[in-house]
Automatic annotation (TrEMBL):
It is a multi-pass membrane protein. This is Elongation of very long chain fatty acids protein. It comes from the Eukaryota. Keywords: Fatty acid biosynthesis, Fatty acid metabolism, Lipid biosynthesis, Lipid metabolism, Membrane, Transferase, Transmembrane, Transmembrane helix. Belongs to the ELO family. It catalyses: a very-long-chain acyl-CoA + malonyl-CoA + H(+) = a very-long-chain 3-oxoacyl-CoA + CO2 + CoA. One of its GO terms (biological process) is fatty acid elongation, polyunsaturated fatty acid. GO terms for molecular function: fatty acid elongase activity. Its main location: membrane. Its EC number is 2.3.1.199. The chain crosses the membrane at residues 12-36.
Amino acid sequence: MRNRKPYDLKTVLRVYNLFQVLYNGLHFGLVFYYLFIERICNLHCMESFPAGHERKQLERVMHTAYLLNKVLDLMDTVFFVLRKSYKQITFLHIYHHVFMSFGSYALTRYYGTGGHFNAVGLLNSLVHTVMYIYY
């Protein structure tokens, strides 16, 4: 790989960034709508919906979508390597993406869905929407 030219991924990156803007924007919009417009839970003490609740499946789908997006975010690192843009692969970049992927999985696996984790996903989706619009 050392002697090869960097890949030209302009089109791939544009499609990837557009997808990320739409995905994160939609996720942010849906979570914002259900938390602040529909007020499906008390914001002072957000708890996970009980197993039989009518919105439990929605909660699971939103958390699964968020988790899958965190895994997809790892593609940033792959694109940096293929473009030989090593200066963008910092400890913070690797730490953030690995921690968010495994951390999101662990929290969902061991604590379930819902509760205050919705706020973390809401803010993270907003930041990623703005970030991918910039790129």
